[in-house]
């Protein structure tokens, strides 16, 4: 039978997400969680101490008077070599892996894996999952690293910028990235395979590709401040800051990034990310159980036939009609809208 600490460790083998606060390096976050998990594992009740046979001398009162013989008796005593105070904690290191990392400046969802689940963590990010971000920007200035922490190199005016102009620029940028995704997916859009991928929204780059935005929309606009929601693939934090810089240039102005917050990383959302006070073994075990149950429910849902939304049905009818009538331009537009969820 496995020891209690080993059973706790096996329960911790899985994927979970935490909320990384800004201003903290991801290595410090990982080390803090690893320390907390080790404390939880080693706090489990220790196994019963091993017993060993030891021969002990009988008390002198028991030995017969006038006898010079030494009388020994066998006794079972604890083997102190295996006592925690002698050998130390049973678990002194566990492998905690980190998924797509966040720099010190950024905050939000950070996915981690424990033990054997580090392989699943690698497989997850080889599948080209998309991630959602909320970007906070400020118009009227430019820096050497595209963020407000960099060295100021230019100031510009922004009074001419309106919400409509900003939304037109975002639509143009999203359109160019959609074309890039179709190019790097290396899929012939006139084939049945491309149609099925587009229906499922599973168009992804084939192999390595530069960062690609799959969605971009305006959340808030109150000059000089504005907020964007971005969905992307293969991104870096510098790339996200550069998006705001390019938005400013397209608007005949400049802009810097004042905040990056990841709200979704593949199947992990910010609603289920553990905050700092919940970086403990019981909370991590509960988060791993929730993720496993949600994955099982998702797989069961996708295996049920006949599950389709009205919008998907309408798009399929439009695609079939376009294919029958030979309208290739319309078919391409329908597939593109399916691929990007528009």
TrEMBL record:
GO terms for biological process: pseudouridine synthesis; RNA processing. Residues 293-329 are annotated as: Disordered. InterPro entries: PsdUridine_synth_cat_dom_sf, PsdUridine_synth_N, Trub2. Residues 96-236 form the Pseudouridine synthase II N-terminal domain. Residues 293-304 have a biased composition (Basic residues). SUPFAM superfamilies: Pseudouridine synthase (SSF55120). GO terms for molecular function: pseudouridine synthase activity; RNA binding. PANTHER family: PSEUDOURIDINE SYNTHASE-RELATED, PSEUDOURIDYLATE SYNTHASE TRUB2, MITOCHONDRIAL. Belongs to the pseudouridine synthase TruB family. This is TruB pseudouridine (psi) synthase family member 2. It comes from Oncorhynchus kisutch.
